[in-house]
Design brief:
This protein has 83 residues and is an alpha+beta fold. The protein has a single domain, classed as top7, de novo designed protein, CATH 3.30.1710. Helix content is 22%, strand content 46%. The chain has two helices and six strands, in the order βββαβαββ. A hairpin with a 3-residue loop joins strand 1 and strand 2.
């Protein structure tokens, strides 16, 4: 099963795991990151800034977004995103 975890900060880091193999890559442009994320069916995202804007953009792309605000510190949260 393939899992995708996204760290959304100044640089977007995408970590994919598939049958014990992992790959990590970074995306420097937020627009490129949204273009990539729009190709996925589901992923989790750790985010610490512009939370409302990112949630709004993901919803515009047709995703359902669940927010876990109990994750981490006060300024960060985890988003569970699926279609």
């Amino acid at each position: 099963m393939k899992t995708v975890s996204v760290r959304y900060n100044k640089i977007v880091t995408v970590i994919t795991e598939d049958n014990r193999q992992s790959s990590v890559f970074t995306i420097k442009s937020k627009k490129s990151a949204m273009d990539f994320l729009s190709t996925l069916n589901s992923f989790e995202m750790h985010i610490s800034s512009n939370i409302k804007r990112v949630v709004s953009n993901l919803e515009k792309l047709g995703f359902n977004v669940s927010i876990d605000e109990t994750f981490g510190f006060d300024w960060e949260c985890k988003l569970y995103v699926n279609r």
